[in-house]
């Protein structure tokens, strides 16, 4: 039996952590390209590039240059691809997924700006909504266009997933076929661990402390979870989620606390989890069924939670024998 070894590379990117767990075969263990330091350098380089392309926190990223431009800016094929995918999700979700919603996110105190000292008025919300809408964003080749000058694009709801796909592709290109890539909780798995053990993942129960709601085995797929149980604040006893509904310009108010999506692409899993979170428990579940998506929802009821999952999700649930 050839020896193989489970190794891990960790670091920081996109305001969060990354962790790449992989299985190296015996022949790879002795090669200089497969040392942890050599792979770490490559992984960091690839994630740095994604940040240089799509970060809104870097004033000289491609996306920041487009946001500062009045009409158009030509970007890399990678940024164009992620924007094009975002526009497709905008269409498919009838506006629930909108990468131009940044001004509203900032208005409610979930962006780089500070938390507001009072809840924004309907007038202020309406004036900010005039600057929001992916219908004002278009793309030709690798050039992004805006039809209103202060349109602002933020890809944070999809770029982390894209980063996971970039790293997964890199590993496959160098002949590593058993891995688990994790960037801030967005995961993509392929193959198995040593001794043919499956990668087993947990869906968290959205309460304080580490509690497992379900164990799952996703096969060669990606998984993304979206939930407001980590990022919210309370004001006058009302809880405000960081997820803004582009249609109302206000934080979502429904009882859907956690959405988990399994998909071949981490970028798509990431974006779709946001779509379903915005749509809420009923419309979100209908959307998942209509598009035959593998989706698991946790809906708050009283002190507990109710599970809903689509037929496409069921095969991934791992029941202890």
In short:
With 321 residues, the protein is of the alpha+beta class. Helices cover 31% and strands 28% of the residues. The strands form 5 sheets. The chain has an 8-stranded antiparallel sheet.
What are the SSEs and their pairings?
Elements: E1 4-13, E2 16-25, H1 26-29, H2 36-54, H3 62-68, E3 72-74, H4 77-92, H5 102-107, H6 122-129, E4 137-140, E5 143-146, H7 159-173, E6 179-183, E7 186-190, E8 201-204, E9 212-216, E10 222-227, E11 232-235, E12 238-241, E13 244-245, E14 250-251, E15 256-263, H8 266-279, H9 281-290, E16 294-301, E17 304-309
Antiparallel strand pairs: 1-2, 2-6, 3-5, 4-5, 6-7, 7-10, 8-9, 10-15, 11-12, 13-14, 15-16, 16-17
Helix pairs in contact: 2-7, 4-8, 7-8, 8-9
Structure, explained:
This protein is an alpha+beta fold. The protein folds into 2 domains: 207 residues, ApbE-like domains (T-fold); 89 residues, Orthogonal Bundle (T-fold). The protein contains 9 helices and 17 strands. The strands form 5 sheets. An 8-stranded antiparallel sheet has the order 1-2-6-7-10-15-16-17. The protein starts with a strand and ends in a 12-residue tail after the last strand. The relative contact order is 0.13.
């Amino acid at each position: 039996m050839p020896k193989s070894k489970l190794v891990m590379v960790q670091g920081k990117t996109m305001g969060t952590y990354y962790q790449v767990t992989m299985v190296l075969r015996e022949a790879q263990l002795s090669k200089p390209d497969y040392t942890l330091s050599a792979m770490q350098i490559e992984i960091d380089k690839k994630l740095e590039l994604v940040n240089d392309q799509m970060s809104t926190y870097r004033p000289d990223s491609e996306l920041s240059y487009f946001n500062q431009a009045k009409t158009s800016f030509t970007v890399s094929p990678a940024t164009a691809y992620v924007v094009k995918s975002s526009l497709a999700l905008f269409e498919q979700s009838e506006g629930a997924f909108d990468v131009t919603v940044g001004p509203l996110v900032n208005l409610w105190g979930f962006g780089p700006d500070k938390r507001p000292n009072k809840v924004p008025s309907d007038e202020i919300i309406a004036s900010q909504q005039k600057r929001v809408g992916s219908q004002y964003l278009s793309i030709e080749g690798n050039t992004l266009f805006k039809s209103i000058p202060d349109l602002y694009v933020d890809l944070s709801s999809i770029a982390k997933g894209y980063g996971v796909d970039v790293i997964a592709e890199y590993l496959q290109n160098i002949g590593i076929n058993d891995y688990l890539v994790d960037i801030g909780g967005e995961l993509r798995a392929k193959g198995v661990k040593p001794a043919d053990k499956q990668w087993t993942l947990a869906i968290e129960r959205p309460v304080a402390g580490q509690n497992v709601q379900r164990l799952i085995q996703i096969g060669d797929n990606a998984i993304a979870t979206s939930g407001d149980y980590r990022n919210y604040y309370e004001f006058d006893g009302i809880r405000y989620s960081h997820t803004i509904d582009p249609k109302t310009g206000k934080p979502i108010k429904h009882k859907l606390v956690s959405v988990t999506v399994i998909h071949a692409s981490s970028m798509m899993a990431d974006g779709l989890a946001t779509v379903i979170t915005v749509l809420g428990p009923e419309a979100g579940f209908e959307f998942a069924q209509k598009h035959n998506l593998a989706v698991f929802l946790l809906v708050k009821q009283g002190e507990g939670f109710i599970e809903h999952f689509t037929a496409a999700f069921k095969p991934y649930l791992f029941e202890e024998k």
